[in-house]
């Protein structure tokens, strides 16, 4: 699950506070405890030695258990912070001043005692606590000799059980104060940390807000200002993602605005051209009709027939132009449905060639289909494909001079069938190839005949091919002819 910005902040601050507080408390407690033990051990390091040298029982090395117990009891009354033990040379506890159930060990490890007696520099040194199975205590120790022979050790625990219980009671009050001060310090630390973090995370937000305000003041025209460049590919930072999205949104909006301006310009130019094209046949029709109406009886039957034929021809041209305008508008709205079905492509090509054969014969143009026999099946919309091929063939006939040749070629390429229409006509210059599919664009060397043309055929064919998931490509050389081609999906069993 992806965490939000607030959740990451809360978890980070809480975890940092807990870890820092725990480490600080543990470190300070350990340091204070070690310092206290070092000071106490140094302060009482000679305690066992003085007792061993000053007390007659211990000085002479005579072991008298009742006397030693009485001595240890007296010393504990005078110094309740100490515990006294007499050990044999092996470390076994022989005498102590406590109830038997208080003693948990039979012996203690002599290595710390020997270390302390021989080296009193590296303190604190901890020895076994006889009143605990695993506890360690600071201590003072001294060897006991009798006529030069080691009789045992005087082992004095510094800060015994009574001292610990009393100190714990006093320390509880101190801990309350320390905890209170620690909580206050922690809250101040958290506050400062939160302020720093919130400042760190809100600076980009303020920067983004300033960019939005500047964009608003410039009427959402990003060309008049410089937006902040945000770091890329940082999906874990919502602010960076928001900034990148904002910049991309502004760029898309400006591109769309520029496209709308360009489309509006193109639309106005198209309307101007179409208005002229509509006005021309209308004016011709109106002129001939008015002539027939005013001079009907004065005109001969031959003149009337010629005038009416001209009116009919202009009417057909006007209808063709209007049909193409509506067809192009319908295609640009994206509301055209596609009816895909399998059919033999060769049959459609031969039907279209037959439809235009008479028109080609009038201009003495040869129409060829290569190959003559083809069994390839394609999966496409037959009506729209027929419209595309008709527009391309009509365009080829119009731009091919007399005695020219037009070839419709069907080629198989793996899972596709490519259909091309090539001619030996006037061709198109290289500079104009990128514009021939624009509505109303006419090449500088376009051929003219007795009929006016709307110039929308190629634009309609281009949009129809895109609906069929194809695209019309063109190759042409000026004065040598042109070749228009597109590809269709071929059925596997064909």
Automatic annotation (TrEMBL):
Its EC number is 2.7.13.3. Gene3D superfamilies: 1.10.287.130, 6.10.340.10, Histidine kinase-like ATPase, C-terminal domain (3.30.565.10). One of its GO terms (molecular function) is phosphorelay sensor kinase activity. The keyword Repeat does not apply. It catalyses: ATP + protein L-histidine = ADP + protein N-phospho-L-histidine. It comes from the Bacteria. InterPro entries: HATPase_C_sf, HATPase_dom, His_kinase_dom, HisK_dim/P_dom, HisK_dim/P_sf, Sensor_HK_Regulatory, Sig_transdc_His_kin-like_C. The chain crosses the membrane at residues 181-202. Residues 273-492 form the Histidine kinase domain. SMART domains: HATPase_c, HisKA. Keywords: Kinase, Membrane, Phosphoprotein, Transferase, Transmembrane, Transmembrane helix, Two-component regulatory system. The keyword ATP-binding does not apply. This is histidine kinase. It comes from Litorilituus sediminis.
């Amino acid at each position: 699950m992806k965490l939000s910005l607030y959740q990451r902040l809360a978890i980070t601050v809480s975890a940092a506070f807990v870890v820092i507080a725990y480490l600080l408390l543990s470190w300070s407690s350990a340091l204070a405890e070690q310092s206290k033990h070092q000071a106490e051990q140094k302060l009482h390091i000679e305690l066992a030695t003085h007792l061993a040298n000053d007390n007659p029982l211990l000085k002479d090395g005579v072991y008298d258990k009742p006397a030693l117990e009485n001595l240890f009891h007296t010393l504990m009354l005078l110094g309740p912070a100490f515990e006294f033990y007499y050990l044999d040379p092996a470390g076994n506890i022989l005498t102590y001043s406590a109830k038997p159930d208080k003693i948990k060990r039979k012996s203690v490890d002599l290595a710390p005692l020997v270390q302390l007696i021989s080296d009193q520099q590296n303190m604190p040194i901890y020895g076994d606590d006889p009143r605990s199975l695993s506890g360690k205590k600071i201590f003072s120790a001294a060897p006991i000799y009798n006529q030069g022979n080691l009789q045992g050790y005087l082992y004095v625990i510094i800060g015994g059980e009574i001292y610990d219980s009393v100190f714990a009671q006093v320390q509880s009050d101190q801990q309350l104060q320390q905890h209170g001060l620690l909580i206050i310090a922690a809250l101040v630390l958290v506050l400062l940390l939160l302020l720093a973090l919130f400042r760190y995370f809100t600076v980009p937000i303020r920067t983004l807000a300033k960019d939005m305000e500047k964009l608003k003041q410039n009427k959402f025209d990003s060309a008049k200002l410089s937006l902040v460049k945000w770091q890329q590919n940082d999906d874990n930072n919502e602010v960076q993602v928001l900034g990148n999205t904002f910049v991309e949104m502004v760029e898309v909006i400006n591109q769309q605005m520029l496209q709308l301006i360009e489309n509006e310009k193109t639309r106005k130019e198209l309307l101007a051209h179409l208005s002229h094209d509509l006005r021309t046949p209308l004016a011709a029709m109106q002129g001939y009709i008015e002539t027939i109406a005013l001079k009907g009886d004065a005109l001969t039957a031959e003149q009337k027939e010629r005038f009416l034929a001209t009116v009919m021809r202009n009417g057909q041209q006007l209808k063709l132009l209007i049909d193409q305008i509506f067809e192009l508008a319908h295609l640009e709205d994206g509301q055209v449905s596609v009816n895909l079905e399998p059919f033999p492509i060769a049959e459609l090509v031969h039907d279209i060639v037959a439809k235009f054969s008479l028109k080609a014969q009038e201009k003495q143009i040869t129409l060829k289909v290569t190959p003559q026999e083809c069994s390839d099946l394609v999966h496409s919309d037959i009506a729209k494909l027929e419209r595309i091929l008709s527009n391309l063939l009509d365009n080829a006939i119009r731009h091919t001079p007399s005695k020219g040749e037009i070839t419709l070629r069907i080629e198989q390429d793996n899972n596709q069938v490519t259909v091309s229409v090539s001619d030996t006509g006037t061709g198109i210059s290289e500079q104009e190839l990128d514009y021939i599919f624009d509505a109303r664009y006419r090449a500088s060397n376009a051929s003219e005949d007795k009929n006016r043309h709307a110039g929308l055929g190629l634009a309609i064919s281009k949009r129809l091919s895109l609906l069929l998931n194809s695209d019309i490509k063109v190759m042409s050389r000026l004065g040598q002819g042109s070749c228009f081609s597109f590809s269709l999906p071929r059925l596997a069993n064909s």
